[in-house]
Design goal:
By secondary structure, the protein is α+β, with helices and mostly antiparallel strands. It has 2 domains: 89 residues; 232 residues, BirA Bifunctional Protein, domain 2 (2-Layer Sandwich). It contains 11 helices and 9 strands. The strands form 2 sheets. The chain has a 7-stranded mixed beta sheet, with helices on both faces. The chain has a two-stranded antiparallel sheet with strand order 2-3. A hairpin with a 2-residue loop joins β6 and β7. The radius of gyration is 37 Å and the shape is elongated. It starts with a helix and ends in a 5-residue tail after the last helix.
């Protein structure tokens, strides 16, 4: 029986040596090593052998299978190497061909503005805080002094997922999260950039847009600190000659509240089409944090004061770069984005 097995193994090794392709090797593997092969059929005869003979026969069969398997792997590697060499010899690289023109991309204007604004405020000692775009009604409205049925909710009509979850209409909920995490202990000095959602859609409003809100809370904070901060930002963002003015306004989460204008950088305050002949351009809303908001978020309003402001990312971009329609930010037109490479 051993002689027959050795003869089969010898024939298998000869067939492997003469194989010319991977397909031929696979056929040899099936012929000699599959469960239905003649070699495998000898394993069933082990039951007729004595115990000590079974050990020797088992070792003998393992050695035979190992020789065939090793030979198959070696031949397969040799065939693959030969095929690769033949392919490389046929392929010719023409070094005289012109190089491929790899077009360099550019940062999207939306992200460019975020980076510019963040750099300015980080330079003033602010930290960047982020939060989820899906918020609860509690954080998006109630902790910001906008209870249910408050008329200010109409201005921030957003998309509700269910009765309590919604797409945030402002980045102010991040401020509430940070204040609660601080457990009534200041100071806080953060900006929170991100996307927000409202039911709007026209040339100057979008159902999705970006905001960067700032929050400063500490002892002895006043409107003078807010004005100085916004002056520094405006000059860094729009030029050293910019002037800032505040106009009385209303936001439920600040008291007093102001709209903030900068002197028109197109006409220098003389009056033009950009500033609608007023010499001023509105850029953001701000105010002192409402005492009720401080109290709901764990701060003692008799000990701590603070200011907050909100900047529209697309609004800044439209003013600084002359973008005429907010929807251009979301139309996926590469021609729009490549204008702002430098």
């Amino acid at each position: 029986m051993n002689e027959r097995i050795e003869k089969i193994a010898s024939q298998a090794l000869e067939d492997i040596e003469n194989a010319k392709s991977s397909e031929a090797l696979q056929d040899i593997h099936n012929r000699y090593l599959s469960k239905k092969s003649e070699l495998s059929s000898f394993m069933s005869k082990m039951r007729d052998l004595k115990a000590e003979e079974k050990v020797k026969f088992g070792q003998f069969m393992n050695d035979i299978r190992f020789k065939i398997t090793t030979s198959l792997e070696s031949k397969k590697a040799a065939l693959q190497k030969k095929a690769l060499e033949e392919r490389l010899n046929k392929e010719v690289i023409d070094y005289t061909l012109p190089e491929v023109d790899l077009k360099k991309g550019s940062k999207h204007l939306f992200n460019k503005i975020i980076d510019e604004v963040c750099d300015i405020f980080v330079g003033m000692g602010y930290q960047i805080a982020e939060g989820p775009e899906i918020e609860s009604d509690h954080f998006n409205f109630e902790l910001l002094n906008v209870p249910k049925d408050h008329p200010a909710r109409d201005m921030q009509d957003t998309f509700f997922i269910d009765e309590t979850l919604l797409m945030r209409s402002q980045t102010s909920p991040v401020q509430a999260h940070v204040m609660l995490e601080k457990k009534g202990q200041g100071p806080i000095k953060i900006i929170s950039p991100g996307k927000v959602y409202r039911r709007d859609d026209d040339a100057t409003h979008s159902h999705q847009f970006g905001q960067i809100e700032g929050l400063v809370i500490d002892k002895n904070i006043n409107m003078g600190n807010l004005l100085a901060t916004l002056e520094l930002f405006s000059k860094a963002m729009f030029g050293e000659k910019r002037e800032v003015r505040m106009r009385s306004s209303y936001f439920p989460f600040t008291e007093p509240s102001v709209e903030v204008d900068i002197s028109c950088f197109e006409c220098g305050g003389k009056g033009c089409a950009l500033c609608k002949k007023t010499g001023w351009i509105e850029i953001l809303g701000a105010g002192m944090v409402h005492p009720h908001v401080l109290e709901m978020c764990g701060f003692d309003p008799h000990e701590y004061q603070g200011f907050a402001f909100g900047i529209g990312i697309e609004r800044v971009a439209m003013l600084k770069y002359g973008v005429d329609d907010i929807r251009r930010f979301y139309n996926n037109d590469m021609r729009f984005n490549t204008q702002f490479k430098r």
